[in-house]
Amino acid sequence: MSTILDGKAVAARIREGLKTEISQSGSEPGLAVVLVGNDPASEIYVRNKGKAARAVGMRSIEQRLPEDSRTEDVLAVVKELNEDPAVHGILVQLPLPQGVDRRRVIEAIRPEKDVDGLTQASQGALVEMTPGLRPCTPAGIMDLLDAYHVELAGRRAVVVGRSALVGLPTALLLLSRHATVSILHSRSEEPWRVAREADVLVAAAGRPRLVTRDWVKPGAVVVDVGIHRTENGLVGDVDRESLEGHAGALSPVPGGVGPMTIAELLKNTWTAYRGLR
Ligand SMILES: Nc1nc2c(c(=O)[nH]1)N[C@@H](CN(C=O)c1ccc(C(=O)N[C@@H](CCC(=O)O)C(=O)O)cc1)CN2
């Protein structure tokens, strides 16, 4: 049997801890989420973020802009939120519509309110390993591994995918914990040869069921970051059925990394509120 890395349960514990801390402090951190356009998955995530924020005692602010918004329109909203003392964390939901310049919008967020950890200031802090707000999904992966006491120092970790949102920062966080890290990507030749060496394999390629049994060393810990909506329901980047009983541990989709992403967003908002890094 493979151990199931139960992100839903770990995230619930994190949220419970935050709720207690926030209520004991008598404070009300504010989280602003900006949604541009009508992407149906983004609608769900933004709704869930607002619900989760309110449930731990935070103020949730939602700003919606139409699909045909210009970069300047989004920048104006971010600027307003930057100036608002009741807003401690700002997140711009991704992806943005085609006409909006993602880099300019993200860069407009004040680093101390960058609860998504995506500004160049936050990314620089991650590279330098100085205090800063870390991107939510990578931070969630680390907390999930820690919750199951997965040893990282000196072990071989392989990340499949090199996105700025997940793959790259996850590799850096694993490196900061002294794992020996490789990154695989769409141009890697025979990626399964490298993947098979992993003690810890993180699949963040954005390709449904890419990682099959022949990519995985028996007993390895496999973290699935993918979420794909198919006619048979949600599937990840990992072909879960072929890994059951082969992997030592496996994060499910749904119920693995997804809930951790939202819990980390709340953690970052609480950190931003306290001004502690
Ligand atoms: N600004 C950002 N945009 C996006 C991020 C991000 O971290 N920052 N990540 C993803 C989407 N995402 C958060 O925004 C996210 C994805 C999935 C889940 C989640 O809880 N998934 C559930 C399944 C829910 C469902 O889809 O029905 C699960 O895995 O159990 C939370 C957050 C892209 N955009």
Automatic annotation (TrEMBL):
Catalysed reaction, written as an equation: (6R)-5,10-methenyltetrahydrofolate + H2O = (6R)-10-formyltetrahydrofolate + H(+); (6R)-5,10-methylene-5,6,7,8-tetrahydrofolate + NADP(+) = (6R)-5,10-methenyltetrahydrofolate + NADPH
Keywords: Amino-acid biosynthesis, Histidine biosynthesis, Hydrolase, Methionine biosynthesis, Multifunctional enzyme, NADP, One-carbon metabolism, Oxidoreductase, Purine biosynthesis
EC number(s) reported in the record: 1.5.1.5, 3.5.4.9
One MF term in the entry's GO annotations: methylenetetrahydrofolate dehydrogenase (NADP+) activity
Domain Tetrahydrofolate dehydrogenase/cyclohydrolase catalytic intervals: 5-116
Binding of NADP(+), residues: 161-163, 227
UniProt KW RNA-binding keyword: no
One annotated GO biological process: tetrahydrofolate interconversion
Pathway in which the depicted protein is active: One-carbon metabolism; tetrahydrofolate interconversion
Tree of life domain: Bacteria
GO CC terms: cytosol
Record-linked Pfam families: THF_DHG_CYH, THF_DHG_CYH_C
Span of domain Tetrahydrofolate dehydrogenase/cyclohydrolase NAD(P)-binding: 135-273
Keyword Transmembrane helix: no
General function of this protein: Catalyzes the oxidation of 5,10-methylenetetrahydrofolate to 5,10-methenyltetrahydrofolate and then the hydrolysis of 5,10-methenyltetrahydrofolate to 10-formyltetrahydrofolate.
UniProt record similarity statement: Belongs to the tetrahydrofolate dehydrogenase/cyclohydrolase family.
Complex and partners: Homodimer.
The protein, known as: Bifunctional protein FolD
Organism: Sulfobacillus harzensis
